[in-house]
Design brief:
The complex is a heterodimer of chains A (147) and B (287).
Chain A: H1 5-15, H2 19-32, E1 58-64, E2 70-76, H3 82-95, H4 100-104, H5 110-115, H6 121-142
Antiparallel strand pairs in A: 1-2
Chain B: E1 15-16, H1 18-23, E2 30-34, H2 41-44, E3 51-52, H3 70-79, E4 87-91, H4 97-108, E5 114-117, H5 120-126, H6 157-165, E6 169-172, H7 176-180, E7 204-205, H8 222-231, E8 241-244, H9 250-261, E9 267-270, H10 273-277
Parallel strand pairs in B: 1-5, 2-3, 2-4, 4-5, 6-7, 6-8, 8-9
Helix pairs in contact in B: 4-9
Classes of the chains: A mainly alpha (147), B alpha/beta (287).
Chain lengths: 147, 287
């Protein structure tokens, strides 16, 4: 199944470059990372939003917008969590504004496509877990409100 | 944490503080080397003047499961502009796991003029010391290395087996769950293929991170390390000792602590570690 258009465009762009350029692009995304604003969540962040297996101590939120789409937010507590910040920025820029159903279809294979040699042993699991956490939030948002 | 010189280490000269490194940023006789697990970290910002040495692409043979050859080491040292007289100072993420691993590989080639920055990258960052994304370029050198000598610092499986039969000192530095065989890999890490769980018979379980002060990532003082390794786990500094983990990276950290901080006479790192032992046919395993 193809990825959403904006995400596919980023993946295609990464595929065109070598390791050094991909590194710079990932750092560029990490620099664009913006933490969850206080009107969405404040410290200490709820454990229910913590991304399991992510050693960068990352959190994710998906807020339903008036048009029915989702806006993704993240927090990365580890100051060295460059990879987590890069992926969070990519997920926000490519998936925010999509419907929960569209976001729920994205799978964690994007991590390898984006990071390739830049993925480390521990990071790989954590980053894939970040994608799965976003999918879980999207699936939860698909369900009608209780009551 | 007290000054390095006051911690009672056997070889305090192998550790330098973050302050010492900042004072020597422009010292041409010093080459700072950052080695991380996260390959993005160096590019995201490093100590000014530091070069990047990657444990997979720079230190490992790209075909065999082995380390670089003499020619590879000479090429690496040439690339980073180091001579025999250059003092290399390693630092990195994960409380200097990979820094110690790189330090260990450098010792296989006899570059003894080497140190580790205590506390590593995290301590440097916490102290708000300078970082840069500018990659330094050094004039290539003509470095003539000795042939790699594995005998002193490295243990192979047959040697480990003989060591087990002699009931020699073994230190398993993995997590208690990996040691017990209830987990085949580090927490939050992928299973890299060991078919059996457990530990090498007779090994003491002393997770590597116990040597570290969790507050700032520095090594604990010698008396605390001695209590951990010698008193609580009955290891003798005079007896041959082999440390192992999963692929030899965490155990190089323990190797460093035992050899240089506590002065163990004969300590080697079994880099085959559990990914080799846990896959071999008909070798003894304890749980």
């Amino acid at each position: 199944m193809p990825y959403p258009a904006r995400l596919q465009a980023v993946i295609d762009m990464f595929a065109m470059f070598d390791t050094a350029d991909r590194t710079n692009m990932l750092l560029g995304y990490a620099d664009q990372f913006r933490e969850v604003p206080p009107d969405v969540a404040t410290r200490p962040f709820a454990r229910s939003h913590q991304i399991p297996q992510c050693e960068s101590d990352a959190y994710a939120w998906a807020l339903r917008q008036p048009d029915g789409t989702l806006k993704l937010w993240f927090a990365v507590e580890n100051p060295s969590g460059v990879s987590a910040k890069a992926l969070a920025a990519i997920l926000d820029k490519t998936l925010s504004g999509l419907t929960p159903a569209e976001i729920a279809q994205v799978d964690s294979s994007i991590v390898e496509k984006l990071f390739r040699q830049n993925i480390s042993m521990g990071k790989g699991m954590g980053l894939m877990s970040m994608v799965e956490a976003v999918r879980a939030l999207a699936r939860a948002a698909e369900k009608p409100p209780a009551g | 944490m007290t000054d390095i010189a006051d911690r009672g280490y056997a070889h305090p000269e192998v550790l330098v503080s973050t302050a010492w490194v900042e004072q020597h940023l422009n010292d041409p006789g010093i080459r700072l080397i950052e080695s991380n697990e996260d390959t993005l970290l160096y590019a995201s910002g490093h100590i000014p003047g530091a070069v990047h040495v990657d444990w997979t692409s720079d230190l490992n043979d790209q075909i065999r499961r082995d380390y670089i050859t003499r020619a590879g080491f000479e090429a690496l040292m040439s690339r980073i502009g180091a001579t025999k007289d250059t003092t290399v100072v390693f630092y990195g993420d994960k409380n200097n796991w990979w820094a110690c691993y790189a330090f260990w590989v450098f010792q296989l080639f006899g570059h003894a003029n080497a140190k580790v920055m205590d506390g590593g990258r995290v301590k440097w960052q916490k102290e708000n010391r300078p970082l840069t994304r500018e990659v330094p370029h050094y004039e290539p050198t003509q470095y003539v290395a000795a042939e790699r000598n594995d005998a002193t610092h490295r243990a192979f499986r047959d040697e480990v087996m003989a060591h087990v039969e002699r009931k020699g000192q073994l230190v398993d530095v993995r997590s208690p769950e990996e040691y017990a065989g209830t987990r085949m890999h580090m927490p939050d890490y992928p299973n890299e293929g060991a078919l059996r769980g457990g530990h090498i018979p007779g090994a003491k379980s002393i997770p590597w991170a116990k040597a570290i002060d969790p507050e700032d990532g520095t090594f604990k003082p010698a008396d605390e390390l001695r209590r951990l390794y010698c008193d609580e786990n009955a290891l003798s500094p005079a007896e041959p000792t082999i440390a192992y983990c999963r692929i030899g990276e965490r155990s190089s950290h323990t190797w460093f602590a035992l050899k240089y901080l506590l002065g163990f006479d004969n300590v080697r790192n079994y880099d085959g570690s559990w990914t080799e032992w846990g896959n071999m046919v008909n070798v003894p395993i304890e749980r």
